[in-house]
Amino acid sequence: MKLHKFIFKEVLGKGAIVDDMKKCKTPVFLKKTDDEFQENQAFEYLIVEPENMLREPNGKASSVILMFHGLNERTWDKYYSWAEYIANHTRKPVLLFPTAFHINRAPAEWSNPRAMQPFVADQQNTEPKPSHLTFLNYALSNRIKADPYRFYLAGRETINNVCQLIGKIKKGTHKLIDSKATIDIFAYSIGALMSQVILFANPNNYFTKSKLFMFCGGSLFDQMDGESKMIMDRESFYSLLDYYKNKFLFFKSESRLKGDVLEMAFVSHIDYAINREERESFYEEISHRIQAISLKKDKVIPTTGIKSALGKIHLNCLEELDFPFDYSHENPFPPEGPKVNPDDRKFWFEKVFSKASAFLS
Known about the structure:
The chain is built from twelve helices and eight strands. It is α/β, with parallel strands linked by helices. It has an eight-stranded mixed β-sheet, sandwiched between helices.
């Protein structure tokens, strides 16, 4: 796998994002506000270059596939094999772009057990005891609990960043990707929701022809279940759900609402009844540009939630699989071992990613 590293420095929309960050309530364990984390504003993104890459005469890639990850991810580890397979089978580079405050855009201590476990232990001594709270999800859980608006704000910030990057590509100043390159998306988990918002809002008409392949993602927000030792604790998830179903959506008591197309696109994916006609009409219109695979035992992003989001087009673009080994949403392809036959794992891995590659080719 040929891996390229590029530095990204946030510019587009930064002022508005910083203003909203300063209004976010800071959880007790943090010693600074969100806008003070420099690693979130300047960071690396990665590009996996395939063998025999499709190139323009100038040597640059004629297409690129953006890859978006799941919620509370701290490394790209599980995604490297995904990106490599897709890149080599489409002959297109795969660009791994981190969401705000995830992967390398967050302090390293947020995923360090020595740093986080004392906070977890203190919280475990409270009543009622938190459910599913771990050192892995402590930072996200408490940041969400302090101010659930952070979830939406991180999405807006990341979409701004992606648009800034595409703007650079369109200007012809990217070292690897041609200015006329087609731009498609492979999205997993919450990255799929962000991708749905991106296609729905279509900022600067950057995504008019983009194809989207979703894996374990694509559900309406209120049909997801983020309670997980690897994502967030129960109290945090239910506070998040309550905030977006009530304060954010209906009561208009959130002063930070923008009222723009991007926000409307997100709102359209919160609840089944909200903007249903517009949402389903949109998916009918782009049905040839979207495909999805869900997993039967996925408790975080259930197939029913994806069907609700897509409407009747799910009959043609959504496939539910059920692997013959012990998998989960967070770990769809667990390491080989006594409970995971390597041949089974290889077969189902290739079934998922061969379909994704064929669609994105």
